[in-house]
């Protein structure tokens, strides 16, 4: 037994998809998804908070973790632009 094996926390590679472009982010299973969201927004050149993120039709929150959200290695998270407001016509 090595001390190294006791300290290993499983990691997953998560794919973030935005309009056909993808990035892969490697995180520990207990890391808040906020880190994945920030990496995706930076990579796609968007301001923080611009996207909403979904996995399997369920919206993900920044405080969620891969383990708590049922995300596994290689899963894809979809990024969508947050739609604000509506039409000003009456």
Polypeptide structure, described:
With 90 residues, the chain is of the alpha+beta class. The chain has one domain (11-81): Phosphatidylinositol 3-kinase Catalytic Subunit, Chain A, domain 1 (Ubiquitin-like (UB roll), Roll). Helix content is 21%, strand content 33%. The chain has three helices and five strands. The chain has helices spanning 3-7, 34-43, 66-69, and strands at residues 11-18, 21-28, 51-55, 58-60, 76-81. The protein has a five-stranded mixed beta sheet with strand order 2-1-5-3-4, covered by helices on one side. β3 and β4 (58-60) form a beta hairpin. It is globular and about 50 Å long. The termini are far apart.
Strand order in space, largest sheet: 2-1-5-3-4
| Named CATH architecture | Roll
CATH-derived topology: Ubiquitin-like (UB roll)
Stretches with pLDDT under 50, minimum 5 residues: 1-6
Q: What is the radius of gyration computed over CA atoms, rounded to a whole number of angstroms?
A: 16 Å
Number of alpha- plus pi-helical segments? 3
Percent in strands: 25-35%
**Residue-averaged pLDDT, rounded?**
89
The major beta sheet can be summarized as:
5 strands, mixed
Counting DSSP E segments of at least 2 residues, the number of strands comes to 5
**Order of secondary-structure elements:** HEEHEEHE
Could you name the CATH class?
Alpha Beta
Question: Oligomer, anyone?
Answer: single chain
Number of domains: 1
* Helical coverage, percent range: 10-25%
The global form is globular
Class by alpha and beta content: alpha+beta
| CATH homologous superfamily grouping | Phosphatidylinositol 3-kinase Catalytic Subunit, Chain A, domain 1
Distance between the termini: 71 Å
